[in-house]
Amino acid sequence: MSIETLQSLIPAYAKDLSSNLTNLLNETIVNDQQKWGTFLSCAHAVGVPAVVKNIEAAASEIMTPEAITAAKAAAAIMGLNNVYFRALHLMQNKEYEKMRAGLRMNILTNPGVDKVDFELWSLAVSAVNACGLCMDSHEKVLRNHGVTAVQIQAALRIASTVNAISAVLRAESALAST
C-alpha cells in the first residue's frame, strides 16, 4: 500500500485530484511532519479505508510512531470538538456557549508532538468537519506562533484534496457494491 496505489484507485474523471495529490506531496511550504500529519489526520477524519491505509503506509516511512499517534489523536479529538462546537455556534440559544463542555480533551495540552504541528492538523481536520469556530480558534493559535497564511493554506489544500479523494472512492465503492 502506498501513494501510488492510492493514485491508481482514483478514476480518470477525477484526475485533477490525483494531480493535486502529487503537487501536495511535493509541497515544501510546511515541513514533512506537518505535511504528512495533515494527510494522515484528514484521512482518519474522513475514514475511507483505502485512503487511510495508503496514506498511513506512506506516512509511516517519514513520521515517528509518536507523531502518527498524535495525527490520529488530532482526528479523534476534532471529531468530538467539531460536532460540539459547531453545534454551539449554529444554535440560536447562546446559553449553551456559557456552559462547561464537560468533555475530556487532555490530548490538547500534551499531544506528543510540537504544538504547532498538532494545531495545524487540528485546523485541517476542522476544515474537513466544517467547524468554522474551531478553524478560527486553531488559525489564531497558529498565527500567534508565527505560522504564515501560506502555510495554513497548504494544510487546507491537503485537507480538501484528501476529502475529495475520499468522497470519490466512497462513491466508486458504493457503485461497485450495487
UniProtKB/TrEMBL annotation:
Domain Carboxymuconolactone decarboxylase-like: 95-175
Chain segments annotated as transmembrane: none
InterPro entries: AhpD, AhpD-like, AhpD_core, CMD-like
Record's keyword annotation contains Disulfide bond: yes
Pfam entry (one): CMD
Catalytic activity of the protein: N(6)-[(R)-dihydrolipoyl]-L-lysyl-[lipoyl-carrier protein] + a hydroperoxide = N(6)-[(R)-lipoyl]-L-lysyl-[lipoyl-carrier protein] + an alcohol + H2O
Assigned EC number: 1.11.1.28
Signal peptide feature range: none
GO molecular function: disulfide oxidoreductase activity; hydroperoxide reductase activity; peroxiredoxin activity
Catalytic residues as annotated in Swiss-Prot or TrEMBL: C131, C134
Disulfide bridges in this chain: C131-C134
NCBIfam families per UniProt: ahpD (TIGR00777), ahpD_dom (TIGR00778)
UniProt family annotation: Belongs to the AhpD family.
Job of this protein: Antioxidant protein with alkyl hydroperoxidase activity. Required for the reduction of the AhpC active site cysteine residues and for the regeneration of the AhpC enzyme activity.
HAMAP family to which the protein is assigned, alphabetical: AhpD
Protein name listed in UniProt: Alkyl hydroperoxide reductase AhpD
Organism in which the protein naturally occurs: Asticcacaulis taihuensis
